[in-house]
């Protein structure tokens, strides 16, 4: 039996006393989901409530055993000293909430100089036949010169286009746009509907970006970030993929940002806990019933997960019910091996170094498709090197990550390593084998970011809020955190409005 308990966030206040000097009743808030948006909602609501001198009870329900949602790590060889990102791997310089939270909570960034340590090229774009581009970190300005020589001014124009789109988006962090009750209206207000309403392919052509750069470089980025080719992702998300300056991750796992947010909020987290029913009462409060059958009452409910995956029953049906939208089914494979990839598998000369990060695009002869196409995968990368003390003798292992549209099998692994790998190794690993450890995960990783000009409602009903409408606009850890912050501010503003209304009524009675 899960025992519900509420930890009152008794925050300092000086003005919210009633005429009989009794403290106001604490607001009861339930947050369903402890991913990026739910954790952010808890954290920012606690801050906003503190500023407004409004006491609040915040309870977070999470059906998984951890905080972080799609941002989580797994341990290689089940060793907690060797964590590797399974979900959201990086955030970037313009992700203000993530960057500021990492600093505030004293979280250290992980090192990103692995390619240099391994003496490998940093990145290569593979089209199933050849590498159309290979870069090294030490190439510096020469690398930029090579890009300009091959693609003309397209890299420069793309960078300007990206900065323009991201600049418009960043205005959503502040007044007068923030906070927004309608995401559709906010997107229109900042001037991004024309960007979300067309495909990446259409957007790039309309802005004079050459096909070669679009297909070889930009499409490689949309594939690794959203498993989508340019004809099947909207223009804004395409530009988001090109905002890579200052890419970073937290040492030990990005989930620590969200766990720190929940902890700092003084919310009461209930992990391994599934909410089955939300029932609105006549007094506009909500009863939440857990799978265990236990029920508790809340003044506000924040649904911080895609409704279609929650198995929730909402009774009566809210004024606005989010549409069921298609999500990408992405296979993520993490594994460890003492071997580097076989250059022959990538049509390189034997002994040639294979890039640390392999992104993919379609060959020029292949018709546009809504899948990985002939390369068969979206990306392969080396994320770390750990000592395998379980092998005989102990030896260093490279930790790989593969994004693909289907489960990775033994024939695929045998090909990229140039050596026979058994089905057993592919499923379970073998301590002394080519694959010493392996972990398979299927994600509904993000919505299919098809072009659209309207987005899901933030306010589903009075006191019932929704953060996941942000997903089909921009789906990142940062934007989910922004959506949670936006809802937190709207909740707080509602409380202040109600308090001011009550004060006005009291004054009117006194005047009579």
Describe this structure in words.
- Its cofactor is FAD.
- Residues 137-498 form the Prenylcysteine lyase domain.
- Belongs to the prenylcysteine oxidase family.
- The chain has 512 residues and is of the alpha/beta class.
- The chain has three domains: 8-70 and 251-326 and 453-511, FAD/NAD(P)-binding domain (3-Layer(bba) Sandwich); 113-144 and 327-447, no CATH class; 152-246, no CATH class.
- The chain has 14 helices and 20 strands.
- The longest helix has 35 residues, at 477-511.
Topology record:
Layout: E1 8-9, E2 27-32, H1 36-51, E3 56-61, E4 73-75, E5 83-85, H2 96-104, H3 114-118, E6 123-126, E7 131-135, H4 140-151, H5 154-170, H6 183-189, H7 193-196, H8 200-206, H9 211-226, H10 235-241, H11 255-265, E8 268-270, E9 275-280, E10 286-290, E11 295-298, E12 300-303, E13 313-315, E14 327-337, E15 357-360, E16 379-388, E17 395-404, H12 410-417, H13 423-428, E18 437-447, E19 459-461, E20 464-466, H14 477-511
Parallel strand pairs: 2-3, 2-12, 3-8, 6-15, 9-13, 12-20
Antiparallel strand pairs: 1-3, 4-5, 6-7, 9-10, 10-11, 14-17, 14-18, 15-16, 16-17, 19-20
Helix pairs in contact: 1-11, 1-14, 8-10
What is the β-strand count?
A: 20
CATH superfamily of the largest domain: FAD/NAD(P)-binding domain
CATH topology label of the largest domain: FAD/NAD(P)-binding domain
Strand content: 15-25%
- According to CATH, what is the class of the largest domain? Alpha Beta
Radius of gyration: 25 Å
Bin the helical content.
25-40%
Biggest pleated sheet? 7 strands, mixed
Number of helices: 14
Going by CATH, the architecture of the largest domain would be 3-Layer(bba) Sandwich
| Assembly annotation | single chain
pLDDT below 50 for ≥5 consecutive residues: which ranges? 1-20, 507-512
The total domain count is 3
Morphology: globular
Mean pLDDT: 91
Class from secondary-structure proportions: alpha/beta
First and last CA, distance: 53 Å
InterPro entries: FAD/NAD-bd_sf, Prenylcys_lyase, Prenylcysteine_Oxase1
Cofactor: FAD
Organism: Ampelomyces quisqualis
Family: Belongs to the prenylcysteine oxidase family.
